[in-house]
Automatic annotation (TrEMBL):
Pfam short name (any one): JetD_C
One Gene Ontology term of the molecular function aspect: DNA binding
Transmembrane parts of this sequence: none
Native source organism of the sequence: Natranaerobius thermophilus (strain ATCC BAA-1301 / DSM 18059 / JW/NM-WN-LF)
Family matches, as InterPro entries: JetD_C, Spo11/TopoVI_A_sf
Domain Wadjet protein JetD C-terminal: 299-454
Protein name (record): Wadjet protein JetD C-terminal domain-containing protein
Superkingdom of origin organism: Bacteria
A Gene Ontology term for the protein's cellular component: chromosome
Lineage start: Bacteria, Bacillati, Bacillota, Clostridia, Natranaerobiales
Protein backbone atom coordinates (compact mmCIF):
# COMPACT_ATOMS: atom_id res chain seq x y z
CA UNK A 1 0.00 0.00 0.00
CA UNK A 2 1.37 3.44 -0.98
CA UNK A 3 1.39 5.74 2.02
CA UNK A 4 1.87 8.94 -0.01
CA UNK A 5 -0.14 11.31 2.13
CA UNK A 6 1.19 14.79 1.46
CA UNK A 7 4.36 14.08 3.43
CA UNK A 8 5.77 17.46 2.59
CA UNK A 9 3.47 18.88 5.30
CA UNK A 10 5.40 16.80 7.84
CA UNK A 11 8.80 18.05 6.73
CA UNK A 12 10.87 19.76 9.40
CA UNK A 13 11.49 23.23 8.07
CA UNK A 14 14.51 23.91 10.22
CA UNK A 15 18.06 22.63 9.85
CA UNK A 16 17.85 20.44 12.95
CA UNK A 17 16.87 17.25 11.11
CA UNK A 18 19.45 14.64 12.06
CA UNK A 19 19.59 11.40 10.10
CA UNK A 20 21.16 8.15 11.19
CA UNK A 21 23.88 6.47 9.16
CA UNK A 22 21.35 4.00 7.75
CA UNK A 23 18.88 6.74 6.85
CA UNK A 24 21.59 8.72 5.06
CA UNK A 25 22.69 5.63 3.15
CA UNK A 26 19.18 4.72 1.94
CA UNK A 27 18.27 8.30 1.03
CA UNK A 28 21.58 8.62 -0.86
CA UNK A 29 20.79 5.45 -2.81
CA UNK A 30 17.45 6.91 -3.87
CA UNK A 31 19.06 10.18 -4.94
CA UNK A 32 21.64 8.22 -6.95
CA UNK A 33 18.81 6.44 -8.76
CA UNK A 34 17.07 9.73 -9.36
CA UNK A 35 20.21 11.38 -10.76
CA UNK A 36 21.01 8.41 -13.02
CA UNK A 37 17.65 8.53 -14.77
CA UNK A 38 17.78 9.21 -18.51
CA UNK A 39 15.34 12.10 -18.07
CA UNK A 40 17.35 13.72 -15.27
CA UNK A 41 17.75 17.45 -15.87
CA UNK A 42 15.17 17.45 -18.69
CA UNK A 43 11.84 19.26 -18.75
CA UNK A 44 9.95 16.21 -19.98
CA UNK A 45 9.81 13.63 -17.16
CA UNK A 46 8.84 9.98 -17.14
CA UNK A 47 6.11 9.58 -14.46
CA UNK A 48 7.71 6.45 -12.99
CA UNK A 49 9.11 6.78 -9.49
CA UNK A 50 12.50 5.77 -8.11
CA UNK A 51 12.41 2.83 -5.72
CA UNK A 52 14.59 0.75 -3.46
CA UNK A 53 13.25 -2.80 -3.68
CA UNK A 54 13.48 -4.58 -0.34
CA UNK A 55 14.18 -8.05 -1.69
CA UNK A 56 15.96 -10.95 -0.05
CA UNK A 57 18.77 -10.56 -2.58
CA UNK A 58 19.29 -6.86 -1.82
CA UNK A 59 18.61 -7.08 1.94
CA UNK A 60 19.32 -10.62 3.19
CA UNK A 61 19.36 -9.58 6.86
CA UNK A 62 15.86 -8.13 6.47
CA UNK A 63 14.57 -11.64 5.77
CA UNK A 64 16.65 -13.50 8.38
CA UNK A 65 14.55 -16.50 9.48
CA UNK A 66 15.51 -16.47 13.15
CA UNK A 67 16.54 -12.89 13.87
CA UNK A 68 14.12 -10.05 13.17
CA UNK A 69 16.18 -7.29 14.80
CA UNK A 70 17.54 -5.83 11.56
CA UNK A 71 14.05 -5.79 9.98
CA UNK A 72 12.42 -4.11 12.97
CA UNK A 73 15.20 -1.51 13.28
CA UNK A 74 15.15 -0.89 9.55
CA UNK A 75 11.36 -0.41 9.51
CA UNK A 76 11.55 2.01 12.45
CA UNK A 77 14.24 4.14 10.82
CA UNK A 78 12.45 4.23 7.48
CA UNK A 79 9.19 5.26 9.18
CA UNK A 80 11.10 8.15 10.73
CA UNK A 81 12.52 9.09 7.31
CA UNK A 82 8.98 9.02 5.93
CA UNK A 83 7.80 11.38 8.69
CA UNK A 84 10.46 13.85 7.59
CA UNK A 85 8.86 13.80 4.13
CA UNK A 86 11.81 12.34 2.23
CA UNK A 87 10.35 8.94 1.25
CA UNK A 88 7.14 6.95 0.91
CA UNK A 89 6.92 3.41 2.27
CA UNK A 90 5.15 0.72 0.28
CA UNK A 91 4.35 -2.34 2.39
CA UNK A 92 3.75 -5.88 1.22
CA UNK A 93 0.13 -6.80 0.78
CA UNK A 94 -1.50 -7.95 4.04
CA UNK A 95 1.79 -7.28 5.90
CA UNK A 96 1.63 -3.54 6.42
CA UNK A 97 3.91 -2.38 9.19
CA UNK A 98 5.81 -5.67 9.12
CA UNK A 99 7.44 -6.22 5.72
CA UNK A 100 8.38 -3.50 3.27
CA UNK A 101 8.07 -4.15 -0.45
CA UNK A 102 9.85 -0.99 -1.60
CA UNK A 103 10.76 2.57 -0.68
CA UNK A 104 10.00 5.51 -2.98
CA UNK A 105 11.70 8.89 -3.17
CA UNK A 106 9.54 11.93 -2.40
CA UNK A 107 10.21 14.43 -5.21
CA UNK A 108 8.45 17.35 -3.51
CA UNK A 109 11.17 17.60 -0.89
CA UNK A 110 14.30 17.01 -2.94
CA UNK A 111 15.87 20.34 -2.02
CA UNK A 112 15.60 19.53 1.68
CA UNK A 113 16.91 15.99 1.10
CA UNK A 114 20.04 17.35 -0.55
CA UNK A 115 20.44 19.89 2.24
CA UNK A 116 20.20 17.39 5.09
CA UNK A 117 22.74 15.14 3.34
CA UNK A 118 25.03 18.12 2.70
CA UNK A 119 25.05 17.01 -0.93
CA UNK A 120 24.98 19.04 -4.11
CA UNK A 121 22.47 18.06 -6.78
CA UNK A 122 24.17 16.39 -9.71
CA UNK A 123 23.23 19.19 -12.09
CA UNK A 124 24.95 21.79 -9.87
CA UNK A 125 27.96 19.56 -9.30
CA UNK A 126 28.32 18.88 -13.03
CA UNK A 127 28.11 22.58 -13.90
CA UNK A 128 30.93 23.23 -11.44
CA UNK A 129 32.99 20.39 -12.92
CA UNK A 130 32.30 21.68 -16.41
CA UNK A 131 34.02 24.96 -15.53
CA UNK A 132 37.01 23.10 -14.07
CA UNK A 133 37.39 20.77 -17.08
CA UNK A 134 37.10 23.67 -19.51
CA UNK A 135 39.78 25.61 -17.62
CA UNK A 136 42.31 22.75 -17.89
CA UNK A 137 41.19 21.83 -21.42
CA UNK A 138 42.43 25.25 -22.57
CA UNK A 139 45.81 24.63 -20.92
CA UNK A 140 46.25 20.99 -21.99
CA UNK A 141 48.24 19.46 -24.82
CA UNK A 142 46.11 18.92 -27.93
CA UNK A 143 47.01 15.23 -27.55
CA UNK A 144 44.48 15.24 -24.70
CA UNK A 145 41.64 16.76 -26.74
CA UNK A 146 39.89 13.39 -26.98
CA UNK A 147 39.71 13.13 -23.22
CA UNK A 148 38.63 16.68 -22.43
CA UNK A 149 36.06 16.88 -25.22
CA UNK A 150 34.44 13.59 -24.22
CA UNK A 151 34.30 14.58 -20.53
CA UNK A 152 32.89 18.02 -21.35
CA UNK A 153 30.22 16.39 -23.51
CA UNK A 154 29.28 13.99 -20.70
CA UNK A 155 29.08 16.85 -18.22
CA UNK A 156 26.96 18.96 -20.54
CA UNK A 157 24.50 16.12 -21.08
CA UNK A 158 24.60 14.99 -17.42
CA UNK A 159 25.96 11.59 -18.38
CA UNK A 160 27.87 9.27 -16.08
CA UNK A 161 31.62 9.94 -15.86
CA UNK A 162 34.12 7.04 -16.00
CA UNK A 163 34.93 5.67 -12.55
CA UNK A 164 38.58 6.66 -13.04
CA UNK A 165 37.59 10.33 -13.28
CA UNK A 166 35.11 10.48 -10.40
CA UNK A 167 36.08 11.90 -7.02
CA UNK A 168 34.19 13.13 -3.99
CA UNK A 169 35.10 16.79 -4.39
CA UNK A 170 35.78 19.24 -7.25
CA UNK A 171 39.15 19.98 -5.62
CA UNK A 172 40.23 16.36 -6.16
CA UNK A 173 39.11 16.54 -9.80
CA UNK A 174 41.16 19.69 -10.20
CA UNK A 175 44.24 18.03 -8.69
CA UNK A 176 43.78 15.08 -11.07
CA UNK A 177 43.72 17.39 -14.10
CA UNK A 178 46.70 19.39 -12.84
CA UNK A 179 48.69 16.15 -12.60
CA UNK A 180 47.53 15.00 -16.04
CA UNK A 181 48.41 18.26 -17.77
CA UNK A 182 51.78 18.69 -16.08
CA UNK A 183 52.84 15.10 -16.74
CA UNK A 184 52.13 15.40 -20.45
CA UNK A 185 54.04 18.63 -20.94
CA UNK A 186 57.39 17.98 -22.58
CA UNK A 187 60.36 17.99 -20.24
CA UNK A 188 63.99 17.92 -21.19
CA UNK A 189 65.02 16.00 -18.09
CA UNK A 190 63.55 13.13 -16.14
CA UNK A 191 62.08 14.01 -12.77
CA UNK A 192 61.58 11.83 -9.69
CA UNK A 193 57.99 11.11 -8.66
CA UNK A 194 58.41 12.50 -5.16
CA UNK A 195 59.91 15.75 -6.47
CA UNK A 196 57.19 16.01 -9.10
CA UNK A 197 54.51 15.55 -6.42
CA UNK A 198 56.03 18.29 -4.26
CA UNK A 199 56.14 20.64 -7.27
CA UNK A 200 52.44 20.06 -7.99
CA UNK A 201 50.87 19.57 -4.59
CA UNK A 202 53.51 20.50 -1.98
CA UNK A 203 53.17 16.91 -0.79
CA UNK A 204 55.65 14.18 -1.74
CA UNK A 205 53.02 11.43 -1.69
CA UNK A 206 49.98 13.22 -3.14
CA UNK A 207 50.81 12.12 -6.70
CA UNK A 208 50.31 8.48 -5.66
CA UNK A 209 46.59 9.15 -5.19
CA UNK A 210 46.13 10.11 -8.85
CA UNK A 211 48.83 8.15 -10.70
CA UNK A 212 46.86 5.06 -11.73
CA UNK A 213 43.91 7.12 -12.94
CA UNK A 214 46.14 9.47 -14.93
CA UNK A 215 47.83 6.48 -16.56
CA UNK A 216 44.38 5.10 -17.44
CA UNK A 217 43.40 8.41 -19.05
CA UNK A 218 46.58 8.51 -21.14
CA UNK A 219 46.27 4.90 -22.24
CA UNK A 220 42.65 5.34 -23.29
CA UNK A 221 42.51 8.89 -24.64
CA UNK A 222 45.94 10.14 -25.67
CA UNK A 223 46.03 10.76 -29.39
CA UNK A 224 48.76 11.10 -31.98
CA UNK A 225 47.44 14.49 -32.97
CA UNK A 226 49.86 17.39 -33.36
CA UNK A 227 49.36 21.02 -32.38
CA UNK A 228 49.46 21.99 -36.06
CA UNK A 229 46.02 21.61 -37.71
CA UNK A 230 47.44 22.09 -41.21
CA UNK A 231 50.02 19.41 -40.57
CA UNK A 232 47.31 17.05 -39.30
CA UNK A 233 45.42 17.42 -42.58
CA UNK A 234 48.60 17.06 -44.59
CA UNK A 235 49.49 13.79 -42.88
CA UNK A 236 46.12 12.39 -43.96
CA UNK A 237 46.13 9.88 -41.12
CA UNK A 238 43.72 8.83 -38.40
CA UNK A 239 45.43 10.99 -35.84
CA UNK A 240 42.77 11.06 -33.17
CA UNK A 241 42.81 7.40 -32.23
CA UNK A 242 43.16 6.23 -28.65
CA UNK A 243 46.65 5.10 -27.66
CA UNK A 244 45.76 1.45 -28.02
CA UNK A 245 45.74 2.03 -31.78
CA UNK A 246 48.49 4.56 -32.11
CA UNK A 247 51.84 3.83 -33.66
CA UNK A 248 53.91 3.94 -30.49
CA UNK A 249 51.94 1.16 -28.79
CA UNK A 250 52.13 2.94 -25.46
CA UNK A 251 48.86 1.24 -24.56
CA UNK A 252 50.87 -1.98 -24.18
CA UNK A 253 53.44 -0.46 -21.82
CA UNK A 254 53.63 -1.16 -18.13
CA UNK A 255 52.58 1.85 -16.07
CA UNK A 256 56.14 2.70 -15.01
CA UNK A 257 57.30 2.51 -18.65
CA UNK A 258 54.55 4.86 -19.76
CA UNK A 259 55.39 7.34 -17.02
CA UNK A 260 59.07 7.16 -17.97
CA UNK A 261 58.04 8.00 -21.53
CA UNK A 262 56.87 11.33 -20.11
CA UNK A 263 60.00 11.72 -18.00
CA UNK A 264 58.55 10.64 -14.64
CA UNK A 265 60.56 8.00 -12.79
CA UNK A 266 60.69 6.40 -9.34
CA UNK A 267 64.48 6.60 -9.04
CA UNK A 268 67.28 7.78 -11.36
CA UNK A 269 67.83 5.21 -14.12
CA UNK A 270 71.36 5.16 -15.40
CA UNK A 271 72.05 4.18 -18.99
CA UNK A 272 74.19 1.03 -19.02
CA UNK A 273 76.63 1.18 -21.92
CA UNK A 274 79.80 -0.59 -23.05
CA UNK A 275 82.17 0.07 -25.97
CA UNK A 276 84.81 2.37 -27.40
CA UNK A 277 83.51 5.91 -27.07
CA UNK A 278 84.92 9.13 -25.67
CA UNK A 279 82.73 12.05 -24.72
CA UNK A 280 83.01 15.34 -22.88
CA UNK A 281 80.95 17.21 -20.32
CA UNK A 282 81.79 20.44 -18.48
CA UNK A 283 83.70 18.20 -16.02
CA UNK A 284 86.10 16.91 -18.68
CA UNK A 285 86.51 13.94 -21.04
CA UNK A 286 85.43 10.39 -20.24
CA UNK A 287 86.65 7.22 -21.97
CA UNK A 288 84.20 4.32 -21.74
CA UNK A 289 86.99 1.81 -22.28
CA UNK A 290 88.18 2.54 -18.74
CA UNK A 291 84.98 0.95 -17.40
CA UNK A 292 84.31 -2.77 -17.73
CA UNK A 293 82.24 -4.69 -18.45
CA UNK A 294 80.03 -1.59 -18.62
CA UNK A 295 79.22 1.71 -16.92
CA UNK A 296 75.95 3.39 -15.93
CA UNK A 297 75.68 6.97 -17.14
CA UNK A 298 73.41 9.25 -15.07
CA UNK A 299 70.64 11.19 -16.87
CA UNK A 300 72.26 14.61 -16.41
CA UNK A 301 75.53 13.35 -17.90
CA UNK A 302 73.67 11.94 -20.91
CA UNK A 303 71.98 15.28 -21.43
CA UNK A 304 75.26 17.22 -21.19
CA UNK A 305 77.52 14.87 -23.13
CA UNK A 306 79.23 15.74 -26.39
CA UNK A 307 80.58 12.71 -28.26
CA UNK A 308 84.22 13.15 -29.34
CA UNK A 309 85.24 9.71 -30.58
CA UNK A 310 83.33 6.59 -31.55
CA UNK A 311 84.85 3.36 -32.83
CA UNK A 312 81.92 1.11 -33.56
CA UNK A 313 80.88 -0.87 -36.60
CA UNK A 314 77.65 -1.73 -34.78
CA UNK A 315 75.53 -0.15 -32.08
CA UNK A 316 73.27 -2.70 -30.38
CA UNK A 317 70.42 -2.03 -27.99
CA UNK A 318 69.32 -4.97 -25.85
CA UNK A 319 65.95 -5.37 -24.17
CA UNK A 320 66.81 -7.41 -21.06
CA UNK A 321 69.61 -7.00 -18.53
CA UNK A 322 70.65 -10.68 -18.38
CA UNK A 323 70.97 -10.77 -22.17
CA UNK A 324 72.88 -7.48 -22.11
CA UNK A 325 75.64 -9.01 -19.98
CA UNK A 326 75.47 -12.25 -21.96
CA UNK A 327 76.14 -10.28 -25.14
CA UNK A 328 79.00 -8.32 -23.54
CA UNK A 329 80.75 -11.61 -22.74
CA UNK A 330 81.24 -12.28 -26.46
CA UNK A 331 81.03 -8.81 -28.03
CA UNK A 332 84.02 -7.64 -30.09
CA UNK A 333 85.71 -4.32 -29.34
CA UNK A 334 84.03 -2.55 -32.23
CA UNK A 335 80.49 -3.05 -30.84
CA UNK A 336 78.86 -0.37 -28.71
CA UNK A 337 76.18 -2.02 -26.58
CA UNK A 338 73.34 -0.27 -24.68
CA UNK A 339 70.89 -1.81 -22.22
CA UNK A 340 67.41 -0.69 -23.22
CA UNK A 341 65.32 -2.10 -20.35
CA UNK A 342 62.05 -2.79 -22.19
CA UNK A 343 60.46 0.25 -23.80
CA UNK A 344 63.19 2.85 -24.01
CA UNK A 345 62.76 6.06 -22.06
CA UNK A 346 63.72 9.66 -22.68
CA UNK A 347 67.35 9.35 -21.55
CA UNK A 348 68.02 6.32 -23.74
CA UNK A 349 66.49 8.22 -26.63
CA UNK A 350 68.83 11.14 -25.87
CA UNK A 351 71.96 9.02 -26.12
CA UNK A 352 70.76 7.12 -29.18
CA UNK A 353 69.95 10.34 -31.00
CA UNK A 354 73.36 11.76 -30.10
CA UNK A 355 75.04 8.62 -31.43
CA UNK A 356 72.97 8.74 -34.62
CA UNK A 357 73.77 12.42 -35.17
CA UNK A 358 77.48 11.75 -34.62
CA UNK A 359 77.47 8.79 -37.04
CA UNK A 360 75.75 10.84 -39.73
CA UNK A 361 77.99 13.89 -39.20
CA UNK A 362 81.16 11.77 -39.39
CA UNK A 363 79.91 9.87 -42.45
CA UNK A 364 80.37 6.54 -40.63
CA UNK A 365 78.81 3.30 -41.84
CA UNK A 366 77.90 2.17 -38.35
CA UNK A 367 74.77 0.00 -38.27
CA UNK A 368 72.15 0.03 -35.53
CA UNK A 369 70.61 -3.21 -34.26
CA UNK A 370 68.10 -4.16 -31.61
CA UNK A 371 67.89 -7.53 -29.88
CA UNK A 372 64.73 -8.32 -27.94
CA UNK A 373 62.20 -11.01 -27.07
CA UNK A 374 60.73 -13.08 -29.88
CA UNK A 375 57.22 -12.27 -28.82
CA UNK A 376 54.47 -9.66 -29.03
CA UNK A 377 56.12 -7.34 -26.52
CA UNK A 378 59.50 -7.63 -28.22
CA UNK A 379 58.01 -6.67 -31.59
CA UNK A 380 56.20 -3.69 -30.11
CA UNK A 381 59.31 -2.48 -28.25
CA UNK A 382 61.34 -2.70 -31.48
CA UNK A 383 58.69 -0.78 -33.40
CA UNK A 384 58.44 1.85 -30.66
CA UNK A 385 62.24 2.25 -30.74
CA UNK A 386 62.32 2.85 -34.49
CA UNK A 387 59.37 5.20 -34.53
CA UNK A 388 60.50 7.37 -31.63
CA UNK A 389 64.18 7.68 -32.60
CA UNK A 390 63.82 7.70 -36.41
CA UNK A 391 66.96 5.57 -36.51
CA UNK A 392 67.06 2.74 -39.11
CA UNK A 393 67.38 -0.12 -36.64
CA UNK A 394 67.50 -3.71 -37.85
CA UNK A 395 66.43 -6.66 -35.67
CA UNK A 396 69.16 -8.92 -34.33
CA UNK A 397 68.48 -12.57 -33.45
CA UNK A 398 64.78 -11.93 -33.94
CA UNK A 399 64.39 -14.15 -37.02
CA UNK A 400 63.00 -17.51 -38.04
CA UNK A 401 66.34 -19.33 -37.74
CA UNK A 402 66.91 -18.15 -34.16
CA UNK A 403 63.30 -18.98 -33.30
CA UNK A 404 63.43 -22.57 -34.57
CA UNK A 405 66.83 -23.20 -33.00
CA UNK A 406 65.56 -22.21 -29.52
CA UNK A 407 61.91 -23.26 -29.81
CA UNK A 408 62.29 -25.94 -27.12
CA UNK A 409 63.03 -23.16 -24.62
CA UNK A 410 59.86 -21.23 -25.48
CA UNK A 411 56.47 -20.85 -23.86
CA UNK A 412 53.05 -21.77 -25.25
CA UNK A 413 50.58 -18.93 -25.73
CA UNK A 414 46.78 -18.78 -25.56
CA UNK A 415 44.04 -17.75 -28.00
CA UNK A 416 43.98 -14.14 -26.85
CA UNK A 417 47.73 -13.82 -27.43
CA UNK A 418 47.33 -15.52 -30.80
CA UNK A 419 44.74 -12.94 -31.85
CA UNK A 420 47.04 -10.05 -30.90
CA UNK A 421 49.88 -11.59 -32.91
CA UNK A 422 47.57 -12.12 -35.87
CA UNK A 423 46.60 -8.45 -35.76
CA UNK A 424 50.25 -7.51 -36.36
CA UNK A 425 50.07 -9.30 -39.72
CA UNK A 426 47.64 -6.58 -40.84
CA UNK A 427 50.08 -3.83 -39.88
CA UNK A 428 52.78 -2.94 -42.42
CA UNK A 429 54.91 -1.42 -39.64
CA UNK A 430 55.61 -4.98 -38.49
CA UNK A 431 56.24 -6.37 -41.97
CA UNK A 432 59.85 -7.39 -41.19
CA UNK A 433 58.44 -9.77 -38.57
CA UNK A 434 55.55 -11.18 -40.60
CA UNK A 435 57.37 -14.38 -41.60
CA UNK A 436 58.42 -14.97 -38.00
CA UNK A 437 54.90 -14.25 -36.73
CA UNK A 438 53.44 -16.79 -39.15
CA UNK A 439 55.92 -19.33 -37.81
CA UNK A 440 54.97 -18.49 -34.24
CA UNK A 441 51.28 -18.89 -35.05
CA UNK A 442 52.04 -22.31 -36.48
CA UNK A 443 53.92 -23.55 -33.38
CA UNK A 444 51.95 -21.51 -30.76
CA UNK A 445 55.24 -20.71 -28.98
CA UNK A 446 56.90 -17.44 -27.97
CA UNK A 447 60.54 -17.14 -26.86
CA UNK A 448 61.98 -14.79 -24.28
CA UNK A 449 65.35 -13.23 -25.04
CA UNK A 450 67.05 -14.92 -22.08
CA UNK A 451 66.31 -18.31 -23.64
CA UNK A 452 68.55 -17.47 -26.60
CA UNK A 453 71.88 -18.81 -25.37
CA UNK A 454 73.87 -18.91 -28.62
CA UNK A 455 74.84 -15.38 -29.63
CA UNK A 456 75.01 -14.69 -33.35
CA UNK A 457 76.94 -11.48 -33.99
CA UNK A 458 75.85 -9.18 -36.81
CA UNK A 459 77.95 -9.38 -39.96
Amino acid sequence: MDSNSNNNSNLSTNSNVKLTKLQKRELSKLLDKYENRKDYGKESKNPRRDFLHITEKNYPDYYHVSDSKFRLDYNAEMKELEKHGFIDLIWKKYQEGEYLEKIALQYENLEQAYSVLNRKPKIEYYRELEKIFYKYYKEASSNLNNFYEEMLSKLKHLQKLPAQVKYETPHEIEELLIGLNQLTKNKELEILKRNFSVELYRDSKRWDKYERRIVWIIKNYWSNKTDNKELDQELNQELAKPLKDHIYDIYMMEDNELLAEFGLIENPRHVNISGYMKFSTHQGEIDLVAFYPDVGLPPQMVKDMKINTLKANCIITIENLTSFYHYLSVAPDNHLVIYLGGYHNRMRRHILNKLWDFVKYQGMETKFYHWGDLDLGGFRIYNHLKEKTNIPFAPLMMDEKTYLYHIDNGHKFNKDYEKKLTDLLKDDEYSEFHNLINLMLKHKVRIEQEAVRDIVLPE
